[in-house]
Amino acid sequence: MTISVLASVTNQELVSYAWIFPNVVCNGHWWYSNTPSFISKDLQARLEAVPRNKIVGYYSDMYKLEFALPKFAMFKRCLASVLSNHFVQGMGWTETRAIELGQQILRGNVQRLFY
């Protein structure tokens, strides 16, 4: 079951559920929390606590196609920043390891869950 939360304040609860229950997957961010600071904070918490195969990085509840590209570009910048600052610089990961995690949550998990 993929779950998304409406606000950043409920992200901690979602992270806990995904950590505890094997069938819960963290799924992207709603349009209403489409703010880089919220996305980066939520994303870092998810990447720290939730198994890497239980995170879907991006989805959109858009109602116009032209909304997708700017939101996806912003999410990728947030993801790159979190992976670079927290995992590569902060935790000593290699760039290759961080890129593999980014690819998994942007594409690999989506393919596994939905195709």
Total of DSSP H or I helical runs spanning 4+ residues:
4
Mean pLDDT comes to 92
Q: Largest sheet, order of strands side by side?
A: 1-2-3
Give the % helix: 55-70%
Shape estimate: globular
Which oligomeric state applies?
single chain
Largest sheet: 3 strands, parallel
Could you state the order of secondary-structure elements as H and E? Answer: EHEHEHH
Rg: 13 Å
Write down the domain tally. 1
Task: Walk me through what this model shows.
There is one protein chain. This protein has 115 residues and is mainly alpha-helical. It has one domain (2-114). The chain is 58% helix and 6% strand. It is built from 4 helices and 3 strands. The chain has helices at 11-20, 36-49, 68-90, 95-114; strands at residues 2-3, 25-27, 55-56. The protein has a 3-stranded parallel beta sheet with strand order 1-2-3. Strand 2 (25-27), helix 2 (36-49) and strand 3 (55-56) form a beta-alpha-beta unit. Helix 1 (11-20) runs parallel beside helix 2 (36-49) and helix 3 (68-90) packs across helix 4 (95-114). The longest helix is centred in the C-terminal third of the chain and has 23 residues, at 68-90. It is globular.
